[in-house]
Amino acid sequence: MVESTVQESRSRDLDKLLLRPGNLVGSNFEPGPGLREDLKEYVRVLVVGAGGLGCELLKDLALSGFRELEVIDMDRIEVTNLNRQFLFRLDDVGKPKAEVAAKRVMQRVSGVNIVPHFCRIEDKELEFYSNFSIIALGLDSIEARSYINSVACSFLEYDADDNPQEETVKPMVDGGTEGFQGHARVIMPGLTPCFECTIWLFPPQVKFPLCTLAETPRTAAHCIEYAHLIKWDEVHSGKAFDPDDPEHMKWVYVEASKRAEFFGIPGVTISLTQGVVKNIIPAIASTNAIISAACALETLKIASGCSKTLSNYLTYNGAEGLHTKVTEFVREKDCLVCGPGVLIELETSVTLQKFIDLLEEHPKLLLSKASIAHRGKNLYMQAPPVLEEMTRSNLSKTLYELMGKIPKDVVHATGTTKKNDKKTSCLRKLRVIFKGVDGITDMETAAGGA
Amino acid sequence: MIRLLKVKEKQREVAQANGGSSHVKKQTAGELRLHKDISELNLPKPCSIFFPNGKDDLVNFEVSIKPDEGYYRGGKFVFSFQVSTIYPHEAPKVKCKTKVYHPNIDLEGNVCLNILREDWKPVLNINTIVYGLCHLFTEPNYEDPLNHDAAQVLRDNLEQFEINVRRAISGGYVGQTYFSRNQSCN
Fold first, then answer.
1. Whole-angstrom Cα distance, residue A233 to residue A241?
2. What residues have CB less than 8 Å from A94, skipping those under 6 apart?
3. Exposure winner among A131, A450, B45, B154, fewest CB in 10 A?
4. Do A150 and B35 touch (CB under 8 A)?
């Protein structure tokens, strides 16, 4: 009895969104009590990262009516996390973030089920990711975003007219913060730009010239990078520097301090050392809270249709006054990761040599001297000579056999194409389908790699 | 999308009941771009490239340079390349595996070449880097030193610099530092 009252009052605010029709709702919105129950039963959300954003996201999603959550993070809790990663306590230091975060939210929000995964994102098979309805990202690196993006886009399939097939779209909601600034974005592969379409949005990392570090240091950061990049190798020949080993970090700090003293440069501290070496920008709890809240709401909107989603990139800047803005970025037409690629239908008897010749004649490609790669395997390389020699014997084999006898998949080709009488080099994505091969209906196993 | 999710959830249950998993190697956009760079390599004459892990691992490779002119002619210098998954957003990591007496390469193999660090741009490619490395051997530069002693000698006494380079290539001591005989030297 008490339990049901609690449940009722907890969903009271949410019910206002889910039970009533409206003018600004998503196209497939079906208001009613059934929707609330379906959210619990059918929507599975994966939260990638259990750090500053991940802790907030898990809490927000659990309180927004989602029941089935999973979280993946490879890190253990550090003392420096405690100021903002509010699910963790001093006693938790050293424990896996994902496990502690899942436990705390489940203790606090009854009925929610959170499965933690203490591992690298690359350790999970594609199948694992395909099981989720929506993937929410609370990450701090371009590499990790790029990886998850390529995984989510690999489920995407296009029909014969190059339109994305709705049921293969795996939505992602991505958040990121840096000090007082942050972004939240919605990625619907095939419909809105994917991470790779707009990777140019990330500014290049600042890198100091090595010779400046070695000869003419002017700042504390120069001294730290000297100790980290040059002095470390000189002293520890062959031993790799591990940024997560406190002893290693201390060594860099001590060396950097010596150097700073020698050149009369102030400002080398242990926290600056960590900041420079690990590329850390001070994280602010409230920025994380704002960005995560936006991401959690977008997740709810995508799943329920109770409102139109963010379209498609929100920037938040609290550093100079307060400014927030939504920009609608557009897709990269020929994106190698989320684009449809060029559809090519082939007989199973076509050899790799014949296939390469076909690309030259194909009206949409006119690609000459093509090199071909399939799922990380180089089937044929035109250059350099050492690779050409290693792959030459494949030319007489059939493409069907080289691709592992699967009915359809994506291959990539690089070569030169003529545009207005000018030769340009290009890299193209090709969707190869073999005629007369059964098993095309087996959607999950035939999902093409991006 | 809830209706869609309901349908999918049913499919998922069916798929799980049937077992069956597919392990697929993911290829990132960075690896694809690298594939393009490598397939279009047009290396300068004195260079060759090796893939120690075979034809399918393009992210780790070695380039050897045998300068045919300048102070370093007759030597052979091997560089290791390590390419990140977000290439070309980030420059490859390049180290010189051959111990060399050079103002812009230190004895640990660190290389001071602007396009490897502060001046890297995604429009540059592997070919550009190799040309840059070749340039270091034809035009060693004392203004951006990593090996301070070598830079000083290059600036103050060209003749001595040439003698030191020859000695390092053919094996022997330059100052306190021992260089083993360069393989390609004859």
1. 8
2. A76, A77
3. B45
4. no
A182 phi/psi in degrees, rounded to 5: -165, 170
Q: Which residues contact B21 (CB under 8 A, 6 or more apart)?
A: A125, A127
- The closest CB to that of A210, out of B15, B23, B112, belongs to B112
Which residue reads 């190698």 in tokens?
A: A336
Task: With CA atoms as reference, report the closest residue to A375 among A331, A330, A410, A336.
Answer: A410
What domains, with CATH codes, occur in chain A? Answer: 2-201+283-327 (3.40.50.720), 210-277 (1.10.10.520), 342-446 (3.10.290.20)
Q: What is the DSSP string of B94-151?
A: EEE-S---BTTB-TT--B--GGGTTT--TT--HHHHHHHHHHHHHS--TTS-SSHHHH
Closest by Cα among A337, A318, A327, A317 to A201: A327
Fill in the amino acid letter for A443.
Answer: M
Q: What's the gap in Å between the CA of B156 and the closest CA on chain A?
A: 18
Phi, psi at A13, each rounded to 5°: -70, -40
Domains of chain B as residue ranges with CATH: 29-106+118-171 (3.10.110.10)
Task: Please indicate whether, in this complex, the C-beta atoms of A381 and B41 are within 8 angstroms of each other.
Answer: no
CB-based contact A187:A195 (threshold 8 Å): yes
Q: Mutating which of A211, A231, A300 best tests the B interface, going by the most B Cβ atoms within 10 A?
A: A211
Q: What is the rounded distance in angstroms from the CA atom of residue B185 to the CA atom of residue A373?
A: 38
Q: Which two tokens stand for residue A336?
A: 């190698």
Best to test chain A binding among B21, B23, B39 (most A CBs inside 10 Å) = B39
User: Taken in order A302, A159, A363, A433, is the CA torsion positive or negative?
Assistant: positive
* Cα–Cα distance measured from residue B163 to residue B148, given in angstroms and rounded to the nearest whole number: 17
Is A449's Cβ below 8 Å from some Cβ in B? yes
Confidence band, pLDDT 50/70/90 cuts, at residue A181: very high
Distance (Å) from the C-alpha of residue B5 to the closest C-alpha of chain A? 6
Count of residues in chain A: 450
Q: Hey, which residues of A are catalytic here?
A: 211
Structure tokens at B151: 């830079």
pLDDT of residue A279: 78
Cβ atoms < 10 Å from Cβ of A167: 14
- Pick B3's closest partner by Cβ from A28, A376, A425: A28
Say if residue A420's pLDDT is above 80. no
A21: phi then psi, degrees, rounded to nearest 5: -70, 170
- In angstroms, the CA A368 to CA A378 distance is 17
DSSP character at residue B14: H
What is the per-residue pLDDT across A55-70, written as a single tens digit (0 to 9) for each? 999 999 999 999 999 9
Is any Cβ of chain B less than 8 angstroms from the Cβ of A37? no
The yes/no answer to whether this complex scores an ipTM above 0.85 is: no
Which residues of chain B have a CB within 8 Å of the CB of A412? 27, 32, 35
Residue A450 has pLDDT above 70, yes or no: no
Top residue of A39, A378, A406, A412 to mutate, by most chain B CBs within 10 Å, is A378
Give contacts of A 383-442 with B, CB under 8 A: 383-384, 386-387, 390-391, 412, 414-415, 425, 427
DSSP code, position A121: G
- The shortest C-alpha distance from B167 to chain A (Å) reads 23
